[in-house]
Amino acid sequence: MKTKKLAELAKTIRSKNAGTDKITFDIIFREKENYELVKKSGTLTKETVCKIYGISEDRISDFVEFDPAYAIKFTIYRDRPSGSPGEGDIFGCQQYPPLLDLEVPVE
Hints:
alpha+beta; Alpha-Beta Plaits; elongated
């Protein structure tokens, strides 16, 4: 089966702060075809997020496939509040890299 990495299909893959206790992730596609391909493949789901980040599903506060923007967005609860001792990413902007190499079937 032929695959492509999510980073090859999406225009933007990012994470960012969503308040003191959450990090939100945006996967945005330029082309509707790539968005639909990823969405229909079932490659990026709540279950996938849990596996990639080693978290339980109750740590996901939102998971949305937003058709008008060709975007998949999800938000997770942090282990610790932003900026607290031992918390390593105050702005939440360093959490997206595990998504880049996610393999999506293209055939």
